[in-house]
Amino acid sequence: MAASAMVPNRRNIVLGLGATALFARQSHAQETPDFPPKPAWTPSFFPNLDEIVERVRHYGRNAHDFVVFQKTTCCLVPPGLSDTEAEKAAVEVLQKIISFHPDMNPQTMADGNILVGYNHPAYNVIPLDFARQHWREIEERHLDGLTRDEVLVTPLGPNVFDDVGKMALLGRSYMFMDALSATVVRIERAV
Questions:
Q1: Overall domain count for the chain
Q2: N or C: which end of the chain has fewer CB atoms below 10 A?
Q3: How many of the other CB atoms lie within 10 Å of CB of 134?
């Protein structure tokens, strides 16, 4: 389910990311030994998992089952799956995202947090207060959140990001960490 379906009245921050992600050697990606390309940034700080679960539950109006990974990525899964089936479905979602090009769609939510969505139903939440606490590293390292040869075109120019874009790259780095070492820590059910 798209983030827009989760939050119909959201304020969307258009960065021009989505379909404008380009890989210089996309046609040779499958032949590259480090496929899929990964960002160099592996943040050492993570938002509070309970807060992330509460925000995803709130943004989705308590209407979705979702799987929570260790580095805070949440994947929506179809209702009624067993725990094993839900885990498998969520891991498949992350693999689909990183096996193509990981488009992202950051949205500023009404509470000021950033919800990072992808081309499959996975999300990262970057709480605004959390980002402020770690702003120095986010400012210094956000470009390390890009993958090899990646160019994301934004209204500010190629690989030039505003604060929302910088936080989105942090969230996407968490998603990559979860996709590459898929450790499920919780399965949340619709209420």
A1: 1
A2: C
A3: 18
